[in-house]
Design goal:
This protein is of the alpha+beta class and 443 residues long. The protein folds into 3 domains: 114 residues, no CATH class; 92 residues, no CATH class; 180 residues, no CATH class. Helix content is 28%, strand content 11%. The strands form 6 sheets. Strands 5, 6, 7, 8, 9 and 10 form a 6-stranded antiparallel sheet that branches. It has a two-stranded antiparallel sheet with strand order 1-2. It has a two-stranded antiparallel ribbon with strand order 3-4. A hairpin with a 5-residue loop joins strand 3 and strand 4. Helix 1 crosses helix 2. The longest helix has 19 residues. The protein is globular.
């Protein structure tokens, strides 16, 4: 595939030689190059590749293969990999499928990577899955834009995208062990673990040589996911100031040493490419930025308490579909709430309506992925996505996403009529609307 994968051959429990087959490294000028076959690369020896992990963990490996983590980067010829329609005649594409060496993503959008020299570059059009259309792809709002020329052929994926679409590059800064978010992206380099298994025997202390995120302290556990799902910047004084991923981070580390969170608009009253005025995310892959503001995070919930990285059975790799997942902890009579006597008393909607589906009110699609209203908010608290937020910060709210024919004022009045704990909060939103109307009239 151009960037090849280190291979380890196991015979029984005997570990043989690690062979590098075209790993990518960085030269003294900071340019990514392909390492000649057999050459040693610092850090490369620590990674073994997911196929080696599969030898002892076949169930987890086969489950992971069903997830989109395993399909971030694919070759055009792989069955089912291509979702874009290159036959559409309503637009003049500046490239054809023959120019595409690798496909990037497939659920919401698909982008196209071309190998030039020893690196890859994203071609200047993308396919939007929901609308089935081609649109121009050339980032102008990302934080790193000023550090790269106005030419897609001068923006290598090794510095901007590949860290979170591969395994090994984040940890080493130089080497991709394999494409896609594989075992060692979350569990850390596996060579010491494999050697310990070979010398000590299965399950005899080898676990100390690998990272199990479920056994990490709370913040370090979430950091494993945040390495790619938290919008951020290189920290002050970083030697990798042009990289859009946390170079040097390994699972179990303190991510804040390698990544600073993206600046939130907070109370400054302006939107950014990444956030609405109130700091709620406007785009996908900022789930961590939303999550750390939530009551769920403050109560000690970890990303993988809801998401199962070893199964793609349900959308977004969750353990259970829809409300059944939420009701695992928030069922009737739960100490975690809700505290009403029944579902409809809490939701004020019929049991079989969207308004009684937990995620439609607590995780509505208000952010953009390929198009607007595709990415679910991960703040969880309804206050972050209420009609009041539309009044104050001009982003979509959970109510009007369903009740498209109604106004924001209608939604606020409905909430006031429900009474309950939010009564005065929604009154505040109505008062703000009233004062704005008076200002517009000049009264």
């Amino acid at each position: 595939m151009g960037k090849a994968v280190g291979k380890i051959i196991l015979s029984g429990l005997t570990l043989s030689v690690l062979i590098c087959t075209g790993c990518r490294a960085v030269n003294s000028h900071g340019e990514v190059m392909t390492t000649p076959r057999g050459a040693a690369v610092a850090g490369e020896r620590d990674y073994v590749g997911s196929k080696v992990c599969a030898g002892c963990h076949p169930e987890n490996y086969e489950g992971w293969k069903t997830t989109l983590h395993s399909k971030m980067i694919q070759e055009p010829g792989q069955p089912g990999a291509l979702v874009a329609d290159f036959s559409k005649k309503d637009i003049s594409l500046p490239f054809g499928l023959k120019d595409v060496d690798l496909l990037l993503a497939s659920r919401f959008k698909q982008r196209f990577m071309k190998k030039i020299g020893d690196d890859y570059y994203v071609l200047p059009m993308q396919w939007n899955v929901a609308t089935k259309e081609w649109v121009r792809y050339f980032p102008r709002d990302e934080w790193w834009v000023g550090q790269y020329p106005e030419d897609w052929q001068k923006r290598p994926t090794s510095r901007l995208c590949d860290g979170c679409h591969s395994t090994g590059l984040i940890g080493t800064g130089t080497t991709i062990t394999e494409w896609n978010v594989a075992c060692e992206a979350c569990h850390g380099p596996g060579e010491r673990h494999v050697k310990a298994e070979a010398s000590l025997g299965p399950g005899k202390g080898a676990g100390a040589k690998i990272v199990n995120p479920t056994k990490l302290p709370f913040e370090r556990a979430n950091d494993v996911c945040f390495q790619c799902h938290l919008a951020g910047r290189p920290p002050e004084g970083s030697n990798f100031a042009d990289r859009d991923y946390p170079v040097g981070y390994l699972p179990g580390d303190d991510l804040s040493r390698y990544r600073s969170p993206a600046p939130s608009p907070g109370r400054e009253g302006h939107e950014s490419h990444e956030f609405f005025k109130d700091g709620v995310s406007r785009k996908n892959r900022n789930q961590g930025n939303d999550f750390i503001q939530s009551r769920m995070y403050s109560r000690g919930i970890r990303c993988f308490d809801c998401h199962n990285p070893h199964s793609g059975k349900y959308t977004a790799m969750v353990y259970k579909p829809g409300s059944s997942l939420c009701l695992t902890c928030h069922g009737e009579g739960s100490l975690a709430g809700p505290f009403e006597r029944g579902l409809t008393e809490h939701t004020h909607h019929k049991p079989d309506s969207p308004g009684s589906q937990c995620i439609e009110c607590h995780m509505p699609r208000i952010g953009k992925n390929a198009v607007k209203l595709e990415s679910r908010c991960h703040c969880f608290d309804f206050e972050f996505v209420s009609p009041e937020q539309t009044v104050l910060y001009n982003h979509s709210n959970a109510c009007n996403l369903c009740h498209k024919d109604k106004t924001t004022e209608w939604a606020l009045r409905a909430l006031v009529d429900w009474d309950g704990r939010g009564k005065w909060r929604w009154q505040r939103g109505l008062q703000e609307l009233k004062e704005r109307t008076l200002e517009e009239k000049g009264d």
